Amino acid sequence: MSLRKDQSLDELARIGNVAQFVSYSPGGKAPNQQFCRIAGYEPNHRFETLRDGLCSLVEHSPEGTINLRSFTPESPRSRDFHYGLANVDEAESLLRKMSAEGLFVIANETVDVSDGGVSGVIQGGVAEFAPDDTPRCVEKEGTASMPSNLARSIIRMVFGFEPETVAADRGRLEFSIHPKPRGWRRSHTLMWEYEGTESAPAQPAMKWPNRFSQHIGDKTFGLLVAHAIGLPVPRTTCFSRRVAPFTFGQDTASREVWTRTCPKEQEPGRYTTVKGWADPFKLLSIEDPQGTQIPAILCQAAVPATHSGAAITDATGQLIIEGTAGEGDHFMLGRKVPEKIPASVTADVRALYDLAKASLGPVRFEWVHDGSRAWIVQLHKGATDSAASTIVPGDARRWETFQVSRGLEALRGFLDGLPGDVGVSIEGEIGLTSHFADLLRKARRPARIKSAAAAGH
């Protein structure tokens, strides 16, 4: 026989943190208190009156509001539901009315799902979660999905604490993570539902962008993943709109920094990247005054660069490594053509690729080599369609030529103005790993590099 909803909460509270609550069964003259978990009180503390219980719940709620959820023993699905009540008189009146109708009622603290934290589910070794939602986010598109140990590592880096997920990998746990302490145990993890049955191993659908990567920024998410799987990432501090600043990565041999804008999704070469410190809040207000496109600014330790570049998986599954001597910003922007890279540097970059591929499958990334080791400064998942002189495969009704010398922003405007059936023929030398090539792939229209011989006719 399944437990009543408030009985299940009482059992769950024995092993973990739950939202503060008091439950009531319908009574003759007044509702009867059943179970209780409120911070500072013994489990199932008995209040003298209904009003005492509701007052205590409101006082201990971080938001100062409570919810009332009614149900019947035969169906745990909510009947009447009242959200965000701050007035105790109103809450008491509503609870008495529902009880008189024969309904069980759970009064619980209001939990703000838009406080910068995340909610989700852990089951079968997989964690799926998203911000601004309940654990039911797993039924929607865009939910982050990854091995549960990787999820714990990323949550620890972003929020600064270890998520309390008990024996979740041996069952199914619905949970939420919160920046401020919550629940009757006053911790940062709330458990909403737990089924202790053994779960078969599952395969995560790990990809980004997803709702969480958009929450903290595409570059931030990729670098967190890189650091969590053991790749060398320069020490990085993230200044986010929605989350308190956090730092991850390793010290480099330099005291200089790069300041990098971090859009929700990859926008090759579109937003500011500067060497040196820049006011992150001023940069946010200038680059994204509406606050809709750039969720974070990164301050990243500089790597003393002997060589820099990028690596991608091409359409045939082969690794392409390109770069130049020194810093790679001009190469990535198409202002500098690929140069011959020392074999030792190529070998170090290939070793990073092999490590990343073992955990994530095909990847593409930007790298910097300091003469001793290679570092990851951006990471994205997935292969590309590019091969040799073909950046994006496909046929077009006609082709328009674009000269590389016009620059990346000119290419962005050029692509925006082209009809859908027109392909792009690039005149000039660019790397298949450059932002030029990334932008063309993102546009999803046929694109090729004009040979020098063809360009001369």
A few lines on this structure:
The protein is of the alpha+beta class. It contains twelve helices and 23 strands. The protein has a five-stranded antiparallel β-sheet with strand order 2-1-5-3-4, with helices on both faces.
Can you tell me the number of structural domains? 4
Kindly report the spatial arrangement of strands forming the biggest sheet.
Answer: 2-1-5-3-4
**Helical content band:** 10-25%
Counting H and I runs of at least 4 residues, what is the number of helices?
12
What does this 3D model show about the protein?
The protein has 457 residues and is α+β, with helices and mostly antiparallel strands. It has four domains: 5-109, no CATH class; 118-195, no CATH class; 211-381, D-amino Acid Aminotransferase, Chain A, domain 1 (2-Layer Sandwich); 390-455, no CATH class. The chain is 25% helix and 29% strand. It contains twelve helices and 23 strands. It has helices at residues 5-13, 50-60, 88-100, 148-159, 211-216, 218-228, 280-287, 329-332, 343-360, 408-416, 435-443, 452-455, and strands at 21-25, 32-37, 66-71, 81-85, 104-109, 118-123, 126-131, 144-147, 172-182, 187-195, 236-240, 246-248, 257-262, 273-275, 296-301, 307-313, 319-325, 363-369, 374-381, 390-392, 398-403, 422-427, 447-449. The strands form five sheets. It has a five-stranded antiparallel β-sheet with strand order 2-1-5-3-4, with helices on both faces. Strand 6 (118-123) and strand 7 (126-131) form a beta hairpin. The model is unreliable at 452-457 (pLDDT under 50).
